[in-house]
Known about the structure:
The protein is mainly α. It is 75% helix and 2% strand. It contains 14 helices and 2 strands. It is a multi-pass membrane protein.
Amino acid sequence: MLRKQWGLTASAGAAFLAIVTASPEVAINIASAARDVSGIGLGNLLGSNIISIPLMVTIAYFASRKQFKNNKEHQEHRDKNILALNKRSVAVLSLPYLGIIALVAILTLPKPWRGLQPIDGWIMLGAYIAFLAHAIVKGKQKGKNVEWNKRQVWLSIAGAIAIATGALFIVKATENIVSVLGISEIVGGLFITGIMTTAPEIFKTWSVVKGGEVTAGTTSVIADNAVTMTLAFFPLALVTTPIEDFQLYWVNLAFVGLMPLLYSLFIHQSKEQHGFTHWQIFAFDAAYIVYLMVMVFFVLKLF
């Protein structure tokens, strides 16, 4: 409703909607920092950003198989097995997000300033403000009249309270599981917390795409990840989070960057129609499987 009221395009609206849908990651990292288990937050930061693009693109593809009324163009996309997207989403969302990942790498990988420090947090907060401003400026149109009611306002407030409460319980649950299994906090964050926090994004992607807004529903995952890498980065940096396993960190950060890189390359691969074919969506899923294999056999060396 705010997107329509403020006259934001689908891509710009996705950047705005991400403030809500990525809030679980932010809340979890605040809770992790407050409970002195910032390793869980760091794992959540990386893990959620790796799995989210393959997962949301796949969900969006299946949700878009629905036939929309009076939309011949979408019917053509269905017949060609294409998840069609507006090419603006690359300039507005995915390229700036790649810039954010590059900035994180510059701030945290070099040995002299390795780790997440308070100054890094303030820099990433500024990066998010720039990302949001760029998305809104690039996608501003004339707004429409929107009527609000008290029920919608109260539902929003209740949702915010539920997210904050859920974040605390997720962090506590991860702490307990990590303790029982004898694994590190960051591994718990990668494969427990990071996966759990995708639930709101799954619901949003499915419902928005099924509602006919394919570009907004599919591209919003990029905006979600940008919020996670900036706003969710901030609380961990304020409490100074060290990188104890450098190999695990850089491998995961590399796959965080690989996913939007594939997104940008695939969306422009077809000259006739911007978007993803079913084979490209399979490639996203295959990339995540490769990530799991690298983690299991080469980084964690479980076998």
